[in-house]
Write a structure and sequence with these properties.
- It contains five helices and 13 strands.
- It has helices at residues 15-23, 45-51, 116-119, 172-175, 209-215; strands spanning 3-9, 26-33, 36-44, 62-66, 69-80, 87-94, 100-110, 124-127, 131-137, 145-148, 157-159, 170-171, 181-186.
- The protein is elongated, with a radius of gyration of 28 Å.
- The termini are far apart.
Length: 216
């Protein structure tokens, strides 16, 4: 689904022009790519500020209406003020239906609390990666890639090659021969050795040989 946002083309450039835009509640941005000239635009700051808080905004195809003219694009980068809740600039890349795109998408972990390694074996889950780089056409870009941890066991790890990918999506790392670890189930709790009678071995008293001789 295309997310639509309105933008206005801007003719003034430079830091002074950008500061004036921000004082007027706008944020400067640029749209580039597909062998076309870059288009400087401005957008409503409040809309963008709240949109950036939604994970889907970062991986969705955006229909940017520049003075009414549509530009299909993806958010590529944005800059925030160091300490104020203010968006300083955004970069959008034009996309079409035929070219493949490299983009990072988040990993979505489910069933961690009921994972066998956690619930039965007392291990804990360590996430090595929280996002991955994929290659796909714009229409096939997923908002995230889901990883089900329910059946992971202590000592087991999940690699990039184990991920279940949406149709027409490939992992850039695997294409480079890098099958990185995504998640590990580690730190298994110690189990107390128990004999057949149900008495823990650690609870059976031992006899000190030296003390036994002294008593004799």
């Amino acid at each position: 689904m295309l997310l639509e946002l309105n933008a206005q083309a801007r003719k003034e450039h430079g830091r002074g022009a950008s500061r004036r835009l921000r004082r007027n509640g706008l944020v400067p941005a640029i749209i580039y790519g597909l062998n076309e000239d870059a288009t400087p635009v401005s957008l409503d700051h409040n809309f963008i500020y709240h949109a950036l808080k939604r994970p889907n905004f970062h991986t969705s195809i955006l229909n940017i209406l520049v003075d009414g003219k549509p530009e299909k694009a993806l958010l590529r980068d944005f800059q925030m003020h160091a300490f104020r809740p203010e968006v300083l600039h955004l970069d959008f890349q034009r996309v079409n239906d035929t070219e493949e795109i490299h983009i990072r998408v988040p990993l979505h972990f489910i069933n961690e609390d009921i994972a066998h390694a956690v619930k039965v074996q007392g291990a804990h889950i360590t996430k090595i990666l929280t996002e991955v780089e994929i290659r796909a056409k714009a229409a096939d870009i997923p908002h995230n890639i889901e990883i089900d941890l329910q059946n992971i066991t202590a000592g087991e790890s999940i690699h990039l090659s184990n991920l279940v990918l949406p149709k027409n999506v490939v992992l850039a790392n695997l294409l480079r021969g890098d099958d990185a670890v995504v998640v590990i189930a580690a730190g298994i709790a110690e189990e107390t050795e128990t004999d057949v009678s149900g008495v823990a071995v650690a609870d059976i008293p031992t006899v000190d040989a030296k003390s036994e001789k002294a008593d004799a």
